[in-house]
Amino acid sequence: MNLRQRPQATRGGGPTYARPEMQEPFNIIPIHNLLADHPSLRYPEVRAAAAALRAVGDLRKPPFVQWRNDYDLMNWLGLFFGFQDDNVRNQREHLVLHLANSQMRLQPPPNLADVLESGVLRRFRRKLLENYKSWCAYLGRRSNIIIHRRRGGDDVRRELLYVALYLLVWGESGNLRFVPECICYIFHHMAMELNQVLDEDIDPETGRPFLPVSGDRAFLRSVIVPIYNTIKEEVEDSRNGTRPHSAWRNYDDINEYFWSRRCFKSLKWPINYSSNFFSTAPKEIRVGKTGFVEQRSFWNLFRSFDKLWVLLFLFLQAALIVAWEGKEYPWQALESRDVQVRLLTVFITWGGLRVLQAVLDAGTQYSLVTKETLSLGIRMVLKGIVATTWTIIFSVFYARIWAQKNSDGRWSGEANKRIVDFLWTALVLLSQNCWHWFCL
C-alpha cells in the first residue's frame, strides 16, 4: 500500500502505520538499489548499465575518505575530483538511461541483454565527445581520451569513466553550458588528470601518487565559480546591454577565447586565477573581444553586405559603359574594342571597393587589437595594403593599354598583348579570391 492509498486516521483510533524508511532520493530509476521493486529495474538493459558502473575493481581508492562497498564509478569520480553528491546521483541516472535506451534499440538484440555491450558504450562516447574531438583538432591538441582498442574489462571501465567525467563536468557547469568550448577546456585537463590517476603516475612535486584537487565541492569552488563570477561581472558592467558592444564581453566572446591556443598559456591548469581572463578592468589589462565587435555605424550597411554591394556597383558600372555607346542592343556595343577595354575598369573599381572594405574593417574592429591579439592588427593593415596594391597594379596596367593604343593610333598587336597581360593579372586576383572562399 502506498501513501496515496493510506486511509484517513480517525479520532477513535485505528490501524497504526510504521513510518516509511528513508531512502536515497532518485529521479526516475533507483539505481542505488537494484533489488528494489521498481518497474524500471525489470529491464535487463537498465541492470546491465548499472552493473557496469559498479565495476570499480582494483582502482586506487580516493584518500581521506571512507570507501563503501556500494560505491560505483560515479562515486569514485565524485570523491577524486570533488563533485557534488547530488550531481553524482543525477548524472548516474542520466548515464544509465542513455546506455539502457541505446542497448534496447539494438537490432538484432544481443545474446546477453543483462551485460552492457561495448559497442553501445563506444557509440555513445563518440557522439557525446564529438565536439571535444573537433575542438582538439582545431587547436592542434592531442585528445586526452586514451582507449587501447583491445577487449577487456579495463577498457570498458576506462571508457565509462571518460563518459561519466564529461557528464559530471557538464552537470555542474550551470551557465557555463552556454560556452561549450570552455567545458571542452575543462574536460581536456580533467581527462588528463584522470589518466594520471588511472596510470598511477607519481606527482613530481610530492613524490606520491598523483592526486587532483579534491574535497567537498572542490570542482565547483575552484573551477566553475571563478569563471561564472567573471561572466556575471561582465553582464553587470553591460548596464543591461546599453553599453557599447566593445566595452564588455558576452557569452560568445568568452567562448571565442577558448577557440584560441592562448587560453592554454594564460589560464593553464590548475587554473591561474591571476590570469587577465578573470580581469574586468580596463581594456589594457583584461582580455577583450576576440571575434567580432559591433560598432553602431551607417557603414555597417556596406560592411555587412559587402559582396552584394560590390556586385551591384560593378554591374552598374558595366551597364553604364555599354549604354553610353547608344547602341540598340548591348551586344552591339560589345563588338567595339574600346568598349571591351573600358569594361576592364571594373577590376580597378573592385580593387577600390576592397580598399574601402579594409578601411571599414579596421575602423569597426580596432577594439579587438590588444597585446595578445597584435597579429590581428597586423592582418588588418596587410589587408589594406594588399587591396591598395591590387588597385594600383590594375590602374598601371590599364593605363599602359591606352598609352600603347594612342601611341600606335590603333589597336595594334602590342596593344592587344597588353590587354592580355591585364587579363592574366585579373586571373591571378580571381584565383586568389576563389582559393580564399574555398578555404572558408
Strand content: under 5%
Ends: how far apart?
Answer: 65 Å
Number of strands: 0
Number of domains: 2
Question: What best-fitting shape do the alpha-carbon axes yield?
Answer: elongated
Class from secondary-structure proportions? mainly alpha
Number of helices: 17
Poorly predicted segments? 1-22
- Average pLDDT reading: 77
Could you provide a short overview of the structure?
This protein has helices at about 45-55, 75-80, 85-105, 120-130, 130-140, 155-170, 180-200, 220-235, 250-255, 260-265, 300-305, 305-325, 330-335, 335-340, 345-365, 375-410, 415-440. By secondary structure, the chain is an all-alpha fold.
Annotate the secondary structure layout.
Blueprint: H1 44-53, H2 73-81, H3 85-104, H4 118-128, H5 130-139, H6 153-171, H7 180-198, H8 218-237, H9 251-257, H10 262-266, H11 300-303, H12 306-323, H13 330-333, H14 337-342, H15 345-365, H16 374-408, H17 413-439
Helix pairs in contact: 1-3, 2-6, 3-6, 4-6, 6-7, 12-15, 15-16, 16-17
